[in-house]
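Recall the central idea of this unit: under ordinary conditions, the amino acid sequence of a chain determines the structure it adopts. In this exercise we apply that idea directly, starting from the sequence alone.
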Amino acid sequence: MENICKKVINIAQEAGNFIRTERKSFDSGNVETKGVHDYVSYVDKRAEDIIIEKLGLLLPEAGFIAEEGTGSKKEGGLNWVIDPLDGTTNFIHGMPPFSVSIGLIDGKEMMLGVVYEVNLDECFYSWKDAHAYLNGEKIRVSDAKRVSDSLIATGFPYTEFKRMKPFLKSFQYFMENSHGLRRLGSAAVDLSYVACGRFDAFYEYGLSPWDVAAGAFIVKQAGGKISDFSGGDGFLFGGELIASNGFVYDEFKADVERFMKAD
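Accordingly, the structure predicted from this sequence is:
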């Protein structure tokens, strides 16, 4: 698995280099709208083509769960979970962060994760039974013990606005009772930052598997804790996720659940 992960890192960086090059001459007129606030460009599509072509050679038996719909999922067994450009809106506007996210699952078990943040040339990764790494150096979650000592990340939903009222109430609570709240625009990067201790906790709803598969795995391998809002393990396909350093998990989950289950 370590050997496979190293090859996936090379693939993610190749796609990231393509994205970085295209950003220099990118024309926002090439953007397509998939839905409300949900955008895609030829860069997303070409990056996905690059990734899937290379991964198909690496593990021909694996299927694909990919944001732009390339390839096909295999029921059970191995599937790559891919976001070729997480943070497309940021990319369109020429602002960081945006990233390449590649995870591998076997049934429901996460096997490896690679997140390559293009702007800072930072690659976060891990594989089953391994430490988590950033550019070759071991990383761990923070040691914050309370929400009041934590910097918290979140993301905004694109379409599922019916839960916005309780969500906004949670913003006020965390702004008043933590070190602050941040929204970067790439869930894969948010999770990677929890894994290396830059953030202490993260929560969001309206997520897709490709947003979180790689980053959630890296958080776990870095000593953190992941769940859905109720504390269950449905975060990969359930659309909602809590990540924390583990120390603040119980308090943080109780706070998130208190607001988000009130809808």
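The helical segments are 2-23, 42-58, 88-92, 164-177, 187-195, 209-221, 235-238, 249-260.
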